[in-house]
Amino acid sequence: MKRVGRWLARVGPRQLIAILTLVWLMFTLGWLVARSDGMGGRPLVIVWGSDPGAYDPHRTSNPVAQDVFRHVCQPLFYEDESGTVRGLLAEDAFQYSNDGRQLSVSLRPGITFHDGAVLSAEAVQSSFERLQRMSVSPLLADLRGVTVTAQPDGRTVLFDLPSPDFDFVRLVLANPYAAIVSPLTQETDGPGFVACTGPYQFAASLYRPGHSLTLARYADYGWPPAMFDNRG
Q: Which overall architecture, per CATH, does domain 77-175 show?
């Protein structure tokens, strides 16, 4: 005890705070990993400096929230490392009308949401209508006047644009804030733990407000971006 006392006397307040913070982080990470049993494998643990408190991609413009929900929720497209637009929930190919005011997108088959719902054209239409209705997203101006319509085949979605916009896929549909949310989502207050299609999912029981958030693995995930070699 005397040695500990002498050591503490030599340690400045800043160093002591840093040491205690490190100990706390190690304890927290150990607790989170210990809670990983039954979650389909090791969880994703993210440490950040603040808790935005809202993680629904349609109800936030907070960059910290975006850094979290991008592991849970996915948009229709993404840009690969070369800057090429590729399909994520949608097929790579998409088609604009000659005047640039209508866009046709086809969905990839076999994709499901964390709550068991199947990705369909109707689900995509519902998700974009929800995003527009929330009136919070940083994409709101880009989606003003845009009409999204599911086609009878269940896999084709039409985007009718108010003016020609050949960059709509890159700037809007590949944006993380345009993530597709399950049509079974219930509108509630709180952190907004929605069901999406990503490799991780929200688990309310693993959220400690102001302290930590653990994302559980989605065991049925099988549609990663083509740029990843590990596709399981």
A: Alpha-Beta Complex (3.90)
The residue ranges of every structural domain in the chain are 77-175
What gap in Å lies between CA 196 and CA 180, rounded to an integer?
A: 6
Distance separating alpha carbons of residues 197 and 153, to the nearest angstrom:
21
Q: What is the mean pLDDT of each run of 10 residues along the chain (232 residues)?
A: 49 50 44 44 68 92 92 97 96 97 98 98 98 94 98 98 97 98 85 94 90 91 76 48
Tokens of 74: 């996915």
Residue bearing tokens 């999204």: 148
Q: At residue 126, what is the residue type? A: S
What gap in Å lies between CA 99 and CA 9, rounded to an integer?
75
Contacts of 74 (CB under 8 A, 6+ apart): 88, 89, 179, 180, 196, 197, 198
Q: What is the pLDDT of residue 189?
A: 67
Task: Record the pTM.
Answer: 0.79
